[in-house]
Amino acid sequence: MGLKTITWEKNKIKIIDQTKLPNSLVYLYINNIKQLQQAIKLLKVRGAPALGAAAALGMYLAVRDSRAKSFKQFSRELEKAARYIGSSRPTARNLFWGIERTCAIALSNSSKTVSEIKNLIFKEAERIVKVDMATCRRIGSYGAALIKKNDSILTVCNAGILATIDYGTALGVIYRAAQLKKNIEVFACETRPLLQGARLTTWELKKNRVPVTLLCDNMAATLMKERRVDKIIAGADRIAANGDTANKIGTYSLAVLARYHRIPFYIAAPVSTFDLDIRDGQGIPIEQRRGYEVTTLFFKKPIAAKGVKVFNPAFDVTPHKLISAIITDRGVIRPPFASNIKRLLKKPKK
Ligand code: MRU
Question: Which among 55, 112, 140, 150 is least surrounded, fewest beta carbons within 10 Å?
Fold first, then answer.
């Protein structure tokens, strides 16, 4: 551990520029919301919980120099910033949650001075950063209880340190299981087209001495057929009220394969990833990205015919029926998901 994906330093948001990994560990300072929006769009900072924290700190960046004379004026500026930051990527619920948390703090303190409210927004953003560290560790502990000694675990994308502040959700479970000396082994899908599995997951697991083997996404079926996978754990970008889960493109196919091969398929996510206003997966907005990422980005020369049409959704939705359990910071949710999600999310926090 020891690595922090996002911190507040020198009056700026400091992030690890994830587009430079695994070759260089480069930090980037973000000083305004235009820079933040670009960093999010380009996936310099990414992963649902990290986006929540970045968005909350971004809300502070947006208003810290405000000269608003009244709360009305100030709240108009906040709304504008919320729309702008919110327009960077549509799928991760946490991004909007981070924005909403800071707006709610402002609203519930509307009788205070603008300067006091700015201060409270900053404190709230800092709290989101801090709480994420504890939240991921709780997910790790609940999840590790599901892991047996010598298990092989398949994962996709990066739901680790780099997708949170410093521990991870799906990889948080893996870190905790490793800490408990369960002698686990990880298989990381490379995660085409942006290669978060190859570039980020293998990098951070190796750094933390967790045995990891990389595979191309289309090799997962063979691995499962050979009985080399005991469990699959993935993160989540948004979970609907019925448990349908949006996560990195390719997660759904792993869940289908898992069902066929009778392998438990788990989602690990904080409660801030749930969106109870969305009844099922059909309502989850799915980001579509540029074809260039598929045809060219990581290659010296384009790998497809010039001008070819490209299908490039960044996420897919795994139907809840294919999910064995959802590991959260408040406990493990099992089917029937709709009622159990409602019950767990309504429970007051301990
Ligand atoms: O496009 P990305 O890299 O932001 O996608 C990230 C994922 O799909 C993660 O699995 C998800 O955000 C959970 S991160 C703890």
Answer: 150
> Between vectors from CA 274 to CA 233 and to CA 5, what angle results, nearest 5°?
65
Cis peptide before 49 (omega within 30 of 0): no
CB count in 10 Å sphere of residue 2: 7
**Residue 60 in tokens:** 């502070």
Buried b (16+ CB within 10 A) or exposed e, 219-254: ebeebbeeeebbbbbbbbbbbbbbbbbbbbbbbbbb
pLDDT at 42 over 60: yes
Residue 83 burial by Cβ neighbours in a 10 Å radius (0-12, 13-18, 19+): exposed
Q: Which atom of ligand 1 has the smallest separation from the CA of 160?
A: 15
Q: Model's pTM, two decimal places?
A: 0.97
Residue 242: CB within 6 Å of ligand 1? Answer: no
Does ligand 1 lie within 6 Å of residue 193's CB atom? no
Burial of 214 from C-beta contacts in 10 A (0-12 / 13-18 / 19+):
middle
Of 3.30.380.10, 3.40.50.10470, 3.40.50.970, 3.40.50.880, which CATH number belongs to 141-346? 3.40.50.10470
149, 249, 167, 62: CA torsion to nearest 10: -170
Atom of ligand 1 nearest to the CA of 269: 15
Active site residues per annotation: 237
Q: What is the distance in A from the centroid of ligand 1 to the CA of 178?
A: 22
Name residue, tokens 């790998």.
303
**Nearest CA-CA partner of 287 in 309, 313, 253:** 313
pLDDT in tens, 288-322: 999 999 999 999 999 999 999 999 999 999 999 99
Predicted confidence at residue 347, as pLDDT, reads 74
Q: Which two tokens stand for residue 30?
A: 């973000």
- Structural domain spans, the chain: 6-136, 141-346
Q: How far is the CA of 51 from the centre of ligand 1 (A)?
A: 9
Whose C-alpha lies nearest to ligand 1, atom 8? 248
Look up the CATH number of domain 6-136.
1.20.120.420
Q: Tell me the residue type at 196.
A: Q
